[in-house]
Predict the structure.
Amino acid sequence: MAVDIAVSGDEAERMCLLTDYDVLILDRDLPVMTGDEVCRRLRELSDPPRILLLTAAGGITDKVYGLTDLGADDYLAKPFDFAELVARVRALSRRAPKPPPLVLHHHGIALDRARREVSVHGRPLELTPKEFAVLQVLMEARGSAVPHDELVRTLWDENLDPRTSAVRATVSRLRSKLGDPVLIAADRGQGYRLCD
């Protein structure tokens, strides 16, 4: 199993918006944004990950609330046996996921993941692999800001200096190719996002 770790609820939500995870193991007691709120918000997505709530709140009322009101797919109370956790994750991951849409759309932009083609209002664009990757990440984020550091970590070499101007330069070229109106906003301190 490949595992990513988030230390706060807002980070978990952001990671789930950027990556199609098979299973999310979610503690209800997280800082910044509670696991309950993360679960509720992810359930609003068209194709949310399968969510296993892993928490110290092990009463029947807690379990019923987590499975019905919050919409979790499974619930495991602490303390637990690690073998049971692994078995539950495997059971959840066996459920056939809906295939993601091959073509993403946003304000006239069409990005075909399979063909690796992009068009704006039907006009084909020639993008470099990095420009395509940045645009795909931004479109998959559905208007949420993607932090600069996350783009560096996801799309560039992990040893790249996070203060590099490579991301900024790539986004600048991408903006120019997409044309007017400007479709990529830079939110100071937040990152980059597609304009509504």
Observations:
- Residues 9-94 form a domain with the Rossmann fold fold (CATH 3.40.50.2300).
- Strands lie at 23-26, 50-55, 74-77, 103-106, 109-112, 117-120, 123-125, 184-187, 191-194.
